[in-house]
Amino acid sequence: MSKSPSYFLFEARVGKENTPLFENQIDLAKSIMSLKDHQYKSKRESTVRSSLSQIFTGERNVSKNLRKAIEDAILSRYDNLSHVESFKKDLFDSFKYQSESRLIEKRLDIGDKDFFDLRNETEKASEIIIVTLEPAELHHSIYADELKNQLLYKLGVIKPTPEYSNLVEANYKFFLPNSKNSLIAIKFWKSLRNRLNEEYSMNIQLADKTLTEINNLGKLKVYTIDEELCCFPVIALQYNSIKITSFCVSYVRNDPSVARYSDDVTQLWKDTHLKKLLTFSEQGLNEIKFTDII
Known about the structure:
Blueprint lengths: L4 H6 L14 H9 L11 H12 L7 H12 L8 H24 L4 H13 L2 E5 L10 H13 L16 E7 L1 H20 L5 H13 L3 E6 L1 H4 L3 E4 L7 E8 L2 E6 L2 H21 L11
Parallel strand pairs: 1-2, 2-3
Antiparallel strand pairs: 1-4, 4-5, 5-6
């Protein structure tokens, strides 16, 4: 059985004076916050502890920035530095194994076939409409992270991982509720910006330039509409074609609940909703641009 991340960080006696590196997650969080020139130095302890808790339970993958912070915290306490590289490899392999195990376990719980159908069908689509009360970008789980990453891959912002061998770049139109001064749309753009910065180590200036460009080129458009229209959540693929594939995606405790719509329901949505949405986009009505939030 593979050793857990907790074993490496809180049990293995590889620290100075033959002690474990850290007493617990709280000790690790405090060590990370004490590091110089790290973004976590200015964050609240509760925020850092929450991020650590999610990776230790396998709810989220380890981001590049958090990995760097953990590595630097290890270096400040590791006894025999000649062995530290192999130790770090074993540690982060254990995090990866834990996340993958968690994903396999959860596939039994949330209707995994429809989720992976959505993932695979979206991979091949070039035109995508998403209507939702809350997009994946506002949720934190392995499944939500998968949808977030896929968006960035298909926009050509981030190099896709090897499993996306059939990926086709796409244009996206998001339709989000206009309640509370378009707060959801603003949060959506800010979440993309933060993800590029924190998960992919893209500096803020480059992230702003990248998102402005894909927005201006029409690759990613965001509109706000009446909240009642968002109560029919849909991800519609190839929406301009005769044959539209569509899915319903909603969120329960951060995990997406996914179901493929039948042909009849998809046709009903096309007849009653699609024309209104395309009118919004064609006339540029209620568009929230990335430059509106910076």
